[in-house]
TrEMBL record:
SUPFAM superfamilies: NAD(P)-binding Rossmann-fold domains, TrkA C-terminal domain-like. Residues 1-117 form the RCK N-terminal domain. The keyword Mitochondrion does not apply. This is Trk system potassium uptake protein TrkA. The lineage of its organism: Bacteria, Bacillati, Actinomycetota, Actinomycetes, Kitasatosporales. PANTHER family: POTASSIUM CHANNEL PROTEIN 2-RELATED-RELATED, TRK SYSTEM POTASSIUM UPTAKE PROTEIN TRKA. It comes from Streptomyces narbonensis. Residues 137-218 form the RCK C-terminal domain. InterPro entries: K_uptake_TrkA, NAD(P)-bd_dom_sf, RCK_C, RCK_C_sf, RCK_N, Trk_Ktr_HKT_K-transport. Pfam families: TrkA_C (PF02080), TrkA_N (PF02254). The keyword Ion transport applies.
Amino acid sequence: MRVAIAGAGAVGRSIAGELLENGHEVLLIDKAPTAISVERVPQAEWLLADACEITSLDEAALQRCNVVIAATGDDKVNLVVSLLAKTEYGVPRVVARVNNPKNEWLFNEAWGVDVAVSTPRLMSALVEEAVSVGDLVRLLRFSHGDANLVELTLPPESAVAGTSVGDVAWPQDTSLVTIIRGSRVLTPSPEETLEAGDELLFVAAQAREEQLEDLLQVRRETTES
């Protein structure tokens, strides 16, 4: 897979290193000569150019990329790069870094963004995820379909604890994608029994999040008359 990364700062270089280790082809683009540190990521291709310029993206052969990552520290630049990648070069997957959470609403399909990653939001979400049980935590937003990656740690008194995945009436437009149980990562087969303390990861439509949280919450006791 060929990946172009706009922004060769610490974030861009870190992403490039991870992708290269996984066997992908990576091109780093930055207009600042001081950012071109070939010795830090020698396996990557490097291009000194302005990623907001069509001529630069032509030189980068963006049409050959499977993924473009807009990872600069400037939200305006990331939006322009995303829009050009999607509309001018038809890049299948565009991932954009959101630096200011107030700008997050702009990073959507209209600007060519498939996945928006807000570092401040992600960090706060991970803090919430570490300390909350029974509360739905939004980890990542997908622009297409208005869907989010959300997580919930199943409380002991949850109504679905002890129930098989296939027997739960999951809300429409939600999909359980992973169960994390201790150090194990489980594929949620219909026969898998949900246990208290399981970390459940869902891709869910935003409109269904409240319904999903209600489903996984505390079991309601019935009283006999």
